[in-house]
Amino acid sequence: MLCPLVGDGRSHRTSLRNEAPGHTRRNGYMQKTMRWSAAVGAGFTLALGLVSPVAAGAAAPAAPTSATAAAARVQLPADWQARRAAAAERLGVEESPAAQVVRDAIDPGDYACGPTEFRNYIRSVLQGLSPEEMQFLDESGALDFPTYDAFVFGTGADPRYGLDAEYRQQLVRTFRDGQRFWDVKSGDIQLLGLNGSVLRDEARLTRLLVVVYGLEEADAAAYAAAVVAAVAQIPALQGGDNPIFSLNAFAFSGEGDPDPLFSSIPDKIVMGDGLNDAFEHMGIADVGPRAVLAHEFGHHVQFENDLFDSPLTGAEATRRTELMADALATYQLTHKRGLALNAKRVLQAERSFYEVGDCSFASDGHHGTPNQRMRASEWGAGLAASARKQGHILPSMTVAQRFDAVLPQLVAPDAP
């Protein structure tokens, strides 16, 4: 199951978020990222016809003479959008936080929800892109490729998937603390990074297009060359290093998945470099990355304890697992025998959850509103504080059961 920072079932479990539609141990969570390119496109008014399909076997287009021409002249493989939809369905991925920024409309109903600093940050990293270049991002799949590549092929031993060097120490410490703190099997989880380097590596991108999208080798190689060339010629994309390509984090477990592709993938937590950049922009880089990693580790606690199973369905089921992961994370971060971070500072930095909260109440990928996520984090901090004197760590199932008991209060309508 994939659980993005941004599925239900028992085969493959994922948590992208970015940290989340369904929870199938795979289909759970590429928490919010995996469907993001399609969702980003839905929010923009773009000129149509600038990216066009090409018959299988066609040669790669000639090198464009400008950034806009590079985007406009990329030709999509035959039935490309159908292949993208099939890949997203197979991987069980969700839309990224970027998608939430560009939605045409949100009807919050009874809930208080509005613009956030995180969404403003996403807008800032998209500045400088022309409508044609926006459409390239929407139609080409380029926003999906880094996440899919890390999901399927990334390993902790491969330096191409290394953690952001500036944050490696705090992330590794948080990860190891989670392994020690929680009473679940976690020694097989790999920790790795997410970046846009696949967008300048034709060989890796070709492999992805063959394995995940089912393209023939020659067609995959031609399309990979066209995408790499376009990314290189659009200055705002920074050769794949624009944070928009790695603005996500997710947890994954493929244990028991009947699909051999997923059952062969090791359990992992993937942390996107773009999130670190966002947290720097928001002034919470001291705690934000650790909070997200602890959230993703919380999804592995859920995987091991079968906590994705509940009477809830659809958006309510996903919201429950996301809010529970928020609570588990804050419990670990602030507990005396966890990371023992200052609770006040952690809750201030829990904007890393607050800002990723959404108001898409009907979506199966709904993670909870910012206010709901903040209440879940406050509950986790309070639970840790109640054990401060004795330093006792509650069993993970006890924490989960207590959380379920207060969930109705956490999700109660908050609009005046």
TrEMBL record:
Q: Which domain of life is it from?
A: Bacteria
Q: Where is this region: Disordered?
A: 1-26
Which protein is depicted?
A: Neutral zinc metallopeptidase
Provenance organism: Kineococcus xinjiangensis
